[in-house]
User: Which sequence fits this backbone?
């Protein structure tokens, strides 16, 4: 069971990194503009409701537990909101190699 869990985690991280790479190389993509689009009330932070709205607008309906899990990943300092720096840290590729 431990091996299966570790394999799943590794697969998810690998897939996430592939997505980061694709975003990074996509013409016209801007992390700053993406953050601003999510920061609906223009307070400089993304909250759980902003994430919920984004998911709903794209046909994904997460339960509160899933939203809290996602916030936990994005909100590095656990202050209940995602700053621009935290957002960049999560979306920027960890390995700057197009052949990842």
Assistant:
């Amino acid at each position: 069971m431990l091996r299966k869990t570790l394999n799943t985690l590794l697969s998810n991280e690998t897939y996430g990194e592939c997505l980061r790479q694709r975003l990074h190389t996509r013409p016209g993509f801007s992390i700053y503009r993406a953050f601003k689009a999510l920061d609906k009330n223009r307070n400089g932070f993304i909250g759980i409701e902003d994430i919920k709205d984004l998911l709903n607008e794209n046909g994904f309906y997460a339960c509160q537990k899933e939203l809290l899990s996602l916030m936990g990943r994005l909100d590095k300092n656990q202050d209940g909101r995602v700053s621009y720096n935290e957002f960049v840290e999560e979306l920027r590729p960890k390995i700057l190699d197009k052949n990842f």
Remarks:
- Residues 2-91 form a domain with the Recoverin; domain 1 fold (CATH 1.10.238.10).
- Strands lie at 45-46, 82-83.
- The chain has one domain: 2-91.
